[in-house]
Amino acid sequence: MSTTRGFFGAAIYADEEEEEEEESRRFAMGFDLTLQWSPWLFATFILAAIPLFLRAVLLSSKKPDPKPAYITTKTALSTELSTALPESVFFGAHPSFHESISSYFGLAQQSVIPECIVKPLTAQEVSTAIKIIKRHYDESIRDGSPHPTFAIRSGGHNYVVTAATARDGIVFDLRLLNSVELSEDRKSVTIGPGATWSAVSSVLDPLGLAVAAGRNAAVGVGGLALGGGISYFSPRVGFACDNITSYDIVLADGTLTTTTTTTSSPTADLSRALKGGSNNFGIVTSLTTTTFPAGPLWGGFLYSLGTRTTRLSSIRAMHAFIAATASTNPTSTTTYDPAASPMVCIIDINILGLTYIPLVILNLVHTDGKAWPACYDGFKALPRVFSSAKVQSITSAAREHEGLCTPGSMQFQATTTVANDLDTLMYVHATWEKYRARLGRVRGLLWEFVLQPMAVSMMQNRGGDRDGSGGGNCLGLEDQQEPLVIVLILAVWRDAADEAVVEECGRRTTEEIDAYAKARGTAHRYKYLNYCHGWQDPFAGYGERNRAFLVETSKKYDPDGFYQRARVGGYKLTDCA
Question: Which UniProt keywords apply (predicted)?
């Protein structure tokens, strides 16, 4: 085993190689002794208990739903909204209000109580509500009084508490705008922003079709698509937003308009801005995306006990997989396969505040349905105690992913992007490990980092511009010549009282990784918007030219800065008003 040295001259794990080997020997001895003692009992326990145990730990973090009686105060604005839309505006005493609040994915989001919730049934209802809010907004600006605020929610799955909530404001809950309509020629599908991706794949699976969709069945279409959107098919077709051909959107003045992505369209600039620009330009009421032939995929989750050896070996396997996709890797012995889509998840789970259970979970997918393609040889060599990998539908795979993401807990997420440099990936592990130790005994804590590849083919797709007619996206990745790695830092825990320490450790972990990568020359400016924390600025990561384009587009379609000032949820552009 060769020594790996960090950028600052310090050997990373070099002095721990003997410890790795000794731990591996101890683990192997224990494994063998257990098998000799009771092979059938051991096999039954391992095969049944590992994924069920992981889910049980996550479920134990969910607090009982007390069904609180929310008390909200009506203002002139909310009274006018309820008069104009009596079947779609709800206040604290109504069951629909409680249902909306309690259905947010995160516990912290469920504690943010708006004045009222608008659940539009049609795009015209969205238009009506925006016109009313905009008029009150304009009056407040003239009077110098506090202006109204609102937030936009599709699936409500984002971990960040400020993503789709508005304390004492108005929340647009778009989940009833959930239609899925396949075109007559079956080449495209028009989807409401409140639909979940599993609702889309459930329609398309029986027809042998797919779209560039979210990988978690419960994630909403609107939020994921407007933030870019990573799919099992991204190495082939790019981001989810890259495949969208048109949007129906309500602008700041309440106008309902349709944008198309063709460069000759007068709204091509708005379409491009929506491909990564999030909800800064209006409320999208439907989008149309291209379909493509797709049969069942092969994939699932592979579980391993997270010994240090297995953790580091899984990182090396991911590094080797990504290296095989690089355009400048003449020594690669593995053929790049754009049907392959892996994730490496390294996890420690705190059990009752007493000890940690380490796990390595691989999510391996092959969209052509091929079991164990050659590009996964490095992952195949890793020890594992359970695998759910099989040939299955896209919907089935997404629902399995959903099953490992239990709602109703406190949650943290932050992200960064780095080059596929082994020292940097090892530093990610070392920093994650350091702050895990500092988190002490946060009860019910799941502390995790995830590595995901971004292949060059994914980044250079140019926004669905495969036929030369599209306008591209605004992510700033189209000129990238080498693959990148998305690093996601995650925490899930039980008690709100532990929020400060978890947030601090999560932020420091992310910022120290950023600092190391910058010093080493392996940092990349891009940060995947759908993984960003509220203190991160994804638009700065798109590059100055793209950020300037987004600001210019915002000023063109929203000259008063309504969606920058009045919309409080999500990530903002600046200098737009």
Answer: FAD, Flavoprotein, Membrane, Oxidoreductase, Transmembrane, Transmembrane helix
Tokens (6 digits) for 335: 């053929």
Residue 262 near residue 288 (C-beta atoms within 8 A): no
* 574 token code pair: 């600046």
Cβ proximity of 467 and 474 under 8 Å? no
Amino acid at 445: L
90 is written with which tokens? 């709800």
β-bridge partners, 348: 358, 447
Q: Is the dihedral of CA 402, 373, 205, 222 positive or negative?
A: positive
In Å, the largest CA–CA distance within the chain is 80
Q: How confident is the model at residue 39 (pLDDT cuts 50, 70, 90)?
A: very low
The contacts of residue 97 (CB under 8 Å, 6+ apart) are 70, 72, 90, 91, 116, 117
Unique residue bearing structure tokens 């608008």: 118
DSSP single-letter state for residue 497: G
Which of 346, 371, 369, 372 has its CA nearest to residue 359? Answer: 346
CA 380 to the chain's CA centroid: 26
The Cα 310–Cα 359 span in angstroms is 9
Pairing of strands 116-118, 170-173: parallel
- Which structural domains are found in the chain, ordered by start? 76-173 (3.30.43.10), 180-293+544-565 (3.30.465.10), 297-392+409-542 (3.40.462.20)
- For 244, the 3-state DSSP assignment is strand
Task: For 507-572, list the strands marked E by DSSP.
Answer: 523-524
Name the β-bridge partners of 359: 305, 347
Question: 452-480 pLDDT, tens per residue?
Answer: 999 999 998 754 444 445 578 999 999 99
Residues, the chain: 577
What does the block give as tokens for 387? 């695998």
447: buried, middle or exposed (CB in 10 Å: 19+, 13-18, 0-12)? Answer: buried
**What residue type is 38 in one-letter code?**
S
Instruction: Report how far apart the first and last C-alpha atoms of the chain are (Å, whole number).
Output: 58
pLDDT tens digit sequence for 296-340: 999 999 999 999 999 999 999 999 999 987 755 444 445 679 999
Question: Residue 518 contacts by C-beta under 8 Å, 6 or more apart in sequence?
Answer: none
Q: Is 576 left (phi over 0), alpha (psi -120 to 50) or beta?
A: alpha
How many other β-carbons are positioned within 10 Å of the β-carbon of residue 507? 17
Task: Write out the two tokens for 249.
Answer: 């959107």
Which long-range contacts does 541-544 make (Cβ < 8 Å, 24+ apart)?
Answer: 541/417, 541/476, 542/276, 542/474, 542/475, 542/476, 543/476
Instruction: Give pTM, 2 decimals.
Output: 0.88
Assign residue 529 a region: left if phi > 0, alpha if psi is -120 to 50, beta otherwise?
Answer: alpha
Rounded Cα gap, residues 202 and 442, in angstroms? 39
Structural element, H or E, at residue 124:
helix 123-143
- Decide if 276 contacts 473 (C-beta within 8 A): yes
Distances (CA, A) of 3 to 15, 16, 85, 307: 9, 10, 67, 19
Q: Give the distance, in angstroms, between the CA of residue 251 and the centroid of all CA atoms in the same chain.
A: 26
Distance from the Cα of residue 220 to its chain's centroid: 11
Nearest to 102 by CA among 66, 153, 75, 56: 66
Paired with 306 in beta bridges are none
- Residue 535 DSSP class: T
